[in-house]
Amino acid sequence: MNYDVIICGTGIAGIYTALNINSDLRIAIITNDKLENCNTYLAQGGITTVRGKEDRESFIKDTLYAGGNENNLETVKLIAKEAEKNIKKLVSMGVPFNRGDDGNILYTKEAAHSKRRILYSNDQTGKYIFLTLVEKMKKRKNITIYSKVEILDLIVSEGNSCGVLGCNKNKDILKFWGKKVVLATGGIGGLFKNSTNRRNLKGIGIALSKKNMVEISNIGAIQFHPTAFYDPQSERRFLISESLRGEGAELKDLEGNRFVDELLPRDVVAASIEAKKKEIGSPYVYLDATKLKGDFLRVRFKGIYENLLEKGYDLTKDMIPVTTSQHYFMGGITVDMDGKTNLNNLYACGEVAFTGLHGKNRLASNSLLEGLVFGNRVANDINKEIWSKRGKDKQVEVEKNINIEKIKESNKRLVIDEILKVREDLKDELSIN
Ligand SMILES: Cc1cc2nc3c(=O)[nH]c(=O)nc-3n(C[C@H](O)[C@H](O)[C@H](O)COP(=O)(O)OP(=O)(O)OC[C@H]3O[C@@H](n4cnc5c(N)ncnc54)[C@H](O)[C@@H]3O)c2cc1C
Fold first, then answer.
1. Which terminal CB of the chain, N or C, has fewer other CB atoms within 10 Å?
2. Per-residue pLDDT tens for 327-376?
3. Which of 185, 326, 358 should be mutated for ligand 1, with most atoms under 8 A from CB?
4. Tell me: the pLDDT tens digits for 64-86?
5. Is the distance from the beta carbon of residue 40 to the nearest atom of ligand 1 less than 6 Å?
6. CATH value at residue 300
7. How far is the CA of 262 from the centre of ligand 1 (A)?
8. In this structure, what DSSP letter does residue 365 have?
9. Is 377 among the residues known to form the active site?
10. What value does the mean pLDDT take over residues 97-111?
């Protein structure tokens, strides 16, 4: 199958890239599950913007503070500069962000943001962004969508990325040829026993990079979210958004005593919860939102409220048992400011990419924004470059006897081994078998 561009992943990064590529280029966009089974769909709290030039310094300061100053300043400045225009574009596409009675967009606040600059759609922001982007994508005749196609490897020839190898649910091997390949395959949560992530996200971008000598950075930078619902039975941990704490919910021990400033950066709050759990010998602590008005909670946090009711907890009346859970991957495939990797014609954006934005700890709601800004930059670079490359591509022989299960297992193992080289402390957290 021949295309101009192959995009792997249908989250915010993959779809926004596709929508920003010139509509006369033929694009294949691939996902290994149903379209909506991506982390983007799960995002609750919101998406950060930068509210005018006068907010840039403050956004930069907050992002550096959360990231322990280990961020790449050039990237943080770039995001500060380009956030607003991309968010405006998203708004103009029709995402139903919450608005006040005057029709103006409302902004919320989350941990370590010094002001309200986060757009939200109640507590299901990712779902509404995703649905809006997908609707636009389905109208574009130049984009072909491949669902339930597992990507297994890159096709590389003479130092150029020229496609990907995948398989469908009938186990047929599929070859997608493209002049440019974009990896937007998200995070690594599917490799962990307890994660807020979709289980189908097993760090394929990292495995492909390792196999093809593409540079990766900060593989050990893995974020644990402070407040996932404590449920030892469930495969995926249900997240309770930070914006609930932003609106005043408190963290308490089993006796009902507060023990931490809830709006400190995520890593600090998560460490404090782990220390408290150890001290009191409990697998969870409580999140208490009962001082907030019931009517407000039922509307503003509708998704969380209803989900918890199904689990037997009333957010307006009950203390909710919570614990930390793997949530986000700050490391990834090393890219430049246009999302280019060190392999010719290979780009990466979104959670799979390492741009240096987050440092050692991601500031809440900066991830969707990063996917947007870098998706746009990748698309612009492809639009600029692809013309000069037309007609020069050539086909490459691909191995004939492919053992799909073996490749899938070794891809997973490759990523786990890479993590364990620098984070032996995570051995018990990873799904090794
Ligand atoms: C519960 C939850 C809440 C969150 N809340 C927020 C929030 O409020 N604000 C915020 O900014 N961030 C939030 N995040 C983080 C944010 O949602 C993600 O970082 C972001 O959506 C990543 O987007 P992406 O496009 O890079 O990847 P994803 O949206 O995860 O998409 C990855 C895509 O890659 C595909 N894929 C993966 N492996 C393969 C393979 N082998 N073959 C084919 N396809 C493959 C997947 O099917 C999927 O389509 C949250 C995350 C979670 C889990």
1. C
2. 999 999 999 999 999 999 999 999 999 999 999 989 989 999 999 999 99
3. 185
4. 999 999 999 999 999 999 999 99
5. yes
6. 3.90.700.10
7. 25
8. T
9. no
10. 93
Question: What is the C-alpha to C-alpha distance for residues 140 and 162, in angstroms, rounded to an integer?
Answer: 23
User: What per-residue confidence (pLDDT) applies to 388?
Assistant: 58
List the structure tokens of 57: 């310094």
- The residues with which 30 forms a beta bridge, in sequence order, are 8, 146
User: What average pLDDT does the segment 139-143 reach?
Assistant: 98
| Active-site residue, selected from the candidate residues 237, 266, 300, 377 | 266
What are the residue ranges of helices labelled H in 329-400?
366-389
Asked if residue 202 is part of any domain, the answer here is yes
Please return the burial class of 355, using the count of CB atoms within 10 Å of its CB with bins 0-12, 13-18 and 19+. buried
Q: Is residue 78 part of a domain?
A: yes
Q: Which two tokens stand for residue 201?
A: 């996200």
Q: Ligand 1 center to residue 315 CA distance, Å? A: 26
Are residues 290 and 210 both part of a single domain?
no
Amino acid at 183: L
Instruction: Decide whether any atom of ligand 1 lies within 6 Å of the 262 Cβ.
Output: no
CATH code for the domain of 117: 3.50.50.60
Residue 70, domain extent: 2-221+330-425
